Amino acid sequence: MTHDQKQCWLHISFDLLRNAEMFDRAITSDETWCFQYGPETKRQSMQWKTQNSPWPKKARISQLQVKTMFVCFFDHKVIVHYEFIAQGQMVNQQSYLEVLTRSRESVRRKRPGLWPDKWILHHDTARA
Question: Domain map of the chain by residue range?
Answer without folding.
Answer: 23-38+65-123
